[in-house]
Amino acid sequence: MSHRSADRDEVAGFPTLLRYVVYKRFLLLVRYPANTLAQLLSVYLFFAVIFFGGRVAAESVGAGAGALASTFDGLIVGWFLWTMSLTAYFSLAMNITRESQWGTLEQLYMSAYGFGAVMVANVVALLVESALWGAVILPLMLVTTGRPLTVDLLTVGPVALFALLSVVGIGFVFGGLALVYKRIENVSQLMQFALIGLIAAPIADIPALRYLPLVQGSAMLQRAMQGGVRLWEFPVADLVILAGTGVGYGLAGFYVFSRASDYARKKGVMGHY
Which residues lie below 8 Å from residue 82, measured CB to CB, with a gap of 6+? Predict the structure, then answer.
């Protein structure tokens, strides 16, 4: 039996790894409460400015808030998904960059669990964190606006999960680029606007857009929360596209990240900043 096989037999199982990775993410949130609260407050205030500003603008032209009810509902659903997407994208990309700067990313390659298992645990932890942010911001928006939306967890949960997996793939790509090109913060910041464009993509006019990351999940989430469509009521083709784009972009992003990290290690620039 090889030493590596022996190490695998001695370490605790994957659930233990997952539990400690999730615990680490939780500690980073509660250890810096001012930063966490400021982040939540900025997301909420930004939404409030857009919502109340839009309502005032509608009333000023005599349209009334009722005429824009569907628009406001779409804004709430889109903001809910955008908040979770930002958390998944930035947390993953920044986590990889920080691990590289701290010099701990290379240690993860030598983990007895294997680098793939560590990254899977990180992805699960980020999805849990994203869901937590969504669970906090959505009730705040519903209470603030008074809009009645359907929140069926058996539908919203799976749809949001596969939508976020495609965003995780994007985060892996930018994490890999950061290992090679180092300072890409300005480019990375542009992705938050790209995410807005993907969430608001006109899928009815251009159906091919549904194959892009996040687009199919956003469209299905709008129908689920505005129209009350349940998961099993969606066409099978929609579900297949949702799962295919989520898993496909997630795996493709991880492949790009693996190639980029291999290139950075060969060049000896993994931890150089």
Answer: 195, 196, 199
CA-to-CA separations, 29 to 16, 45, 98, 99, 247, in angstroms, rounded? 20, 20, 16, 17, 27
Cα 246-251-256 angle, rounded to 5 deg? 130
Which residues fall within 8 angstroms of residue 99, CB to CB, at 6 or more apart?
Answer: 105, 108
pLDDT at residue 156, as a whole number: 93
Which tens digit of pLDDT belongs to each residue from 186-227?
777 788 888 889 998 888 889 999 999 999 999 999 999 988
User: Cα 130 from chain centroid?
Assistant: 6
Return the structure tokens found at 134. 């969504």
Q: And the tokens for 29? A: 């949130």
Of 189, 163, 167, 164, the C-alpha closest to 178 is 189
Query: For tokens 């983990």, what's the residue?
Result: 111
Q: If pLDDT is split at 50, 70 and 90, which confidence band does 238 have?
A: very high
Angle between helices 115-145 and 14-30 (to 10 degrees): 40
Scan for tokens 């199982």, then name that residue.
13
13, 45, 66, 142, 240 from 58: Cα distances, Å: 57, 20, 9, 20, 39
SS3 of residue 244 by DSSP: helix
244-263 pLDDT tens trace: 999 999 999 989 988 888 88
Q: Please enumerate in sequence order all residues whose Cβ is within 8 A of that of 103, keeping only pairs 6 or more positions apart, or say none.
A: 271
- Two tokens, residue 151: 């929140």
Q: What share of the chain is helix, strand, coil (3-state, %, to 5)?
A: 80, 0, 20
Q: Considering the entire predicted model, what is its pTM?
A: 0.83
Average pLDDT, the chain: 83
